Amino acid sequence: MENGANTSLNHNIVIKIKKDDPSIEDTNLQRLPFNIGYNGFAKVSNYFKVTEKSGPIPTDDKKYLYSTFRGIQIIGEKMKVPNGFDGYIFRDENEQDDSCNRQWETISKFNELTYWNRETIPSDFDKQIQAFKSLNILSMVNKEITEEDIKNEIKSSKKNNQGNSNETSTTTTTTTTTKTEKNQEIILKIEKKDEEKNNFKDDMDDTYEDNIKQKKYKK
Amino acid sequence: MNNIKYMIELDSSIDKSEPFVMGIDEAGRGPVMGPMVYGCCYAPVSKSSTLKSMKFNDSKKLTEQQRDQLFFKMGESNKILAYETDVISAEILSEKMLYKKPISLNVISHESAIGLIRSVLKKGVNVQELYLDTVGPPDKYQMMLKKLFPEIGKIIVSKKADSLFPIVSAASIAAKVVRDFEISSKNFDDLNIYDEDEQLSTEFGSGYPSDPLTKKWLVKNRDKVFGYPNFIRFSWKTTETAMRGTCYGVDWVLENDKLKQHFQNDKNDKKRFMFFKENNIENCINDF
Predict the structure, then answer these.
(1) What does pTM read for this prediction?
(2) CA distances from B168 to A55, B53, B162 (A)
(3) Basic and acidic residues composition bias: which ranges (chain A) (predicted)?
């Protein structure tokens, strides 16, 4: 950012999505583990040969995609865009324009993408895969909470949580910077319970509470 | 399939438990393209004189025609000998030599030879004498093999084994003929390039980096994004030099570092919550 952080905050971005435009076609998206100093068409189908086979771990039945790029082995896995989301690829229409006005135009869409690693089998420990999977949770985090919701939950929580002191419930937060109010605390706990029912478990449990709290503080 | 094998089994009338002599040699170690082929040949020690009379010689001292004839003869003599080859494709060579922890060509060669020995022993052949051309320092290689195969009475690793021992000569012929077959049957049809002008020619000469035809081919058939089809060994200096400056630069940065760089525009140094950090979710608006 040669102009400093301040100007970047003034960016004005207009995003245009035409959801049912038939001219926006599905695209075959690959996320590769390298940068290349080129942006444009390439003879992908001629040179990029992919074979499907099992990984090196005998107990793992899953098939992975194997290929090479410039002699270097890459291993990939297909990932679906989570339910309720659509993948779009945008192009910046005013790319040459130095002003801060940006217009993103949809050029294609995708329902799945292939994620590639150099030499290692894609796993849930890969940051990009984590980010992708956490979309599910973000949808819950970003859900708007109405005043009525809060009232209802305070009511029900008073019944359920009597005797639970405020201190014990804050111990799990590690990045808290804002003061916590008693009733908010309780709401969080209820929320967590509800969402566990919705099977959002995975590896996110530790960070889960942080995340929900953060959302609340913003409000 | 990564490893294609060409082999001839011993005739069933031959007693595998009698002492055998075995030789191992390689073809195509130096070229910048195509597979490296390891070949082994084994025969009962009692048939040594017959073997000698077949007039095997170092494959480099024979013409292509002589090699083909001898190879054909080998295929018909499974009452005297049998052979087996291990074809290591250029793709596998590139991959292993370009791992983050590279595997050297010497180690790949040793592994291939060891694989062949194991495969023959597994058939129940009683190998008692083993001769190999050296890869790296001969005494070290010999020690390693003796440790791995204590059941083989005599293991000799030496330079020029292919011209010293007929059984190694036979192995070198098998390896060389198989490699030549792999190269000559190579076309680039699998690339599915239908544009006449962009077809890759098959006039790549011997494949040795010193061959002018090979050099010319490398210059003429570059793709700026992909470099070459994976028939070319990307781990060779020659390939690297041929691509440098012409093909687009590629940067294999560690993924995490790359992302860090990518998002470090956020100069406000605002503390992020663990969840976002751990899942690599960043506010990317600043990035555009």
Answers:
(1) 0.73
(2) 37, 15, 5
(3) 179-202
